[in-house]
Amino acid sequence: MDADPALVLGIVIGAFSIISIYAALVDRRLPRTSALTVLLATGLVVCATTTSEVGYTAASQPRTFVNVFVKYLP
Fold it and tell me: What is the pLDDT of residues 1-38, one digit of tens each?
């Protein structure tokens, strides 16, 4: 897998995981599944940052999102 889609997917999954953790805590449930998805998101982001040839900065992330969406969406 290319590093850019892994980074974008990891950030998106991580954002949804945080929302899911909050919803589970509000409902007074244990966020087990959400914790696993946080681990998955962290793994994707770490994989992307270690396999990237150029590296990522906070300023380059919006451009990375746009490039991935343009490349993979019809």
Answer: 689 999 999 999 999 999 999 999 999 999 899 999 99
**What are the contacts of 11-18 at 24+ separation with CB within 8 A?**
11/41, 11/45, 11/61, 13/37, 13/40, 13/41, 13/44, 14/38, 14/41, 14/42, 14/45, 17/41
pTM of the model: 0.87
Phi, psi angles (nearest 5°) of residue 10: -65, -40
Distance CA 31, CA 24 (A): 6
Measured between alpha carbons, how far is residue 69 from residues 38, 41, 47, 73 in Å?
Answer: 22, 18, 19, 6
Give the Cα separation of 57 and 73 in Å (integer): 24
